[in-house]
Write a structure and sequence with these properties.
With about 375 residues, the chain is an all-alpha fold. About 85% of the residues lie in helices and about 0% in strands. It has twelve helices and no strands. α1 packs antiparallel against α8, α2 runs antiparallel to α8 and α5 packs across α12. It is globular, with a radius of gyration of 22 Å. It starts with a helix and ends with a helix.
Length: about 375
């Protein structure tokens, strides 16, 4: 069960989401930097629609991208609020209730609004650097203070678990865990699809000058490698605590409330109160950076690829994400968040498939043109 659990975790968080992001990012980068088109999803449809992609068909494509991104970010805000509320309850014994979670969403949205007002360098970049610093600090602390050698050896074991479980977990028929698969695997795929316009645009903007091979290897392997390390350090270490009996009750804590799983795990380390506070801050800052950067991407999508939009538009989109997250939390919590994500990602998944076809078609034409130039 331990090997299957780690394999399933990496199956959901490993190469698959970054493959989805890579498709969107490559389409955006190619048509923007190689063809001089706007940095929007509709540009990938130019080989198929021609000039019509600047009309109502293109508007529909960008609207679907905006809706998918908003619901994907709203889901992240909702799940982040649940975990942050669990951290506050663990640290200060505050009630882990829906009103506290709504209050956290309001606070995160307010900070995100301030960040988008300050702009990319003064707000988004600053918070992102803080967030990465907190994450690396927490990761290194657990490696050093925890079972260091077991974590190092577990890295390879998790990689083997991932590879050996990819095929069984990719099989959709005859599954005994079909309810779990539909509740989590399908949800994760929808979540990554809904995040793809947001993450894809950021990847595209930092990938100018790379070859497609360099781009694909970088986007697929580097983040998946870091995810493998992160899941091994926290996930595999927690499972070992349960199996060797050093903290067997951790499984019951997670079963009762998975929002406090991280903080119950950190309880076994030195300076647990301080480290749990760092973890709570990291969670909050992560979702602030997701909200503010996502708001800027949605603003660009809604403005035809322009990044010099009025400040009030960024405030509008950041506020909208918070309101959607609050509405979903009040409507049904986790189940409502999952359902909304799947519903918004379904039409956009069709957009991605057609965009893949358009990209391949354009690359073939590019290859033919380059061959003809070389022959002349």
């Amino acid at each position: 069960a331990r090997h299957t659990a780690m394999g399933a975790t990496m199956y959901h968080w490993g190469l698959h989401p970054w493959a989805i992001y890579a498709v969107v990012a490559l389409s955006l980068a190619f048509f923007t930097y190689n063809k001089g088109m706007p940095l929007t999803i509709r540009s990938a449809f130019y080989p198929l629609l021609g000039e019509r992609c600047w009309g109502w068909p293109g508007h529909i494509i960008d609207i679907l991208a905006v809706l998918a991104t908003i619901f994907g970010l709203a889901t992240s805000l909702g799940l982040g609020a649940q975990q942050a509320a669990g951290g506050l309850h663990f640290l200060f014994d505050t009630p882990n209730a829906i009103n506290v979670q709504v209050g956290i969403i309001v606070g995160v949205t307010a900070v995100a609004v301030l960040s988008v007002v300050r702009g990319l360098d003064g707000g988004v970049k600053l918070l992102s650097n803080i967030n990465m610093g907190l994450a690396v600090f927490l990761l290194l602390f657990v490696i050093v203070a925890g079972p260091t050698m077991l974590i190092i050896t577990g890295f390879g074991t998790t990689a083997v678990d991932y590879i050996s479980n990819i095929i069984p977990l990719s099989t959709w028929f005859g599954r005994e865990d079909s309810e779990w698969m539909h509740g989590w695997t399908v949800f994760y795929w929808a979540w990554w699809i809904s995040w793809s316009p947001f993450v894809g645009m950021f990847i595209a903007r930092v990938s100018r000058g790379r070859t497609i091979r360099e781009f694909a290897l970088g986007v697929m392997l580097v983040p998946a490698g870091f995810t493998l390390l992160w899941m091994t350090v926290f996930g595999d270490s927690a499972i070992r605590m349960i199996l060797d009996g050093s903290y067997a009750q951790l499984a019951e804590y997670v079963k009762d409330d998975n929002a406090v799983a991280l903080f119950r795990f950190l309880e076994q380390f030195p300076w647990s109160g301080f480290i749990s506070g760092v973890a709570t801050l990291m969670v909050v800052v992560f979702f602030v950076t997701s909200s503010d950067s996502g708001s800027m991407v949605v603003d660009m999508l809604a403005s035809g690829g322009h990044d010099d939009t009025p400040v009030w538009q960024r405030i509008f989109w950041a506020s909208s994400e918070g309101l959607v997250a609050i509405a979903l939390m009040l409507a049904g919590g986790l189940q409502a968040l999952q359902s909304a994500t799947i519903a918004s990602a379904l039409p956009f998944s069709a957009v991605l498939l057609i965009a893949c076809f358009g990209l391949v078609r354009s690359l073939k034409v590019e290859g033919i043109r380059r061959t003809s130039f070389q022959s002349n």
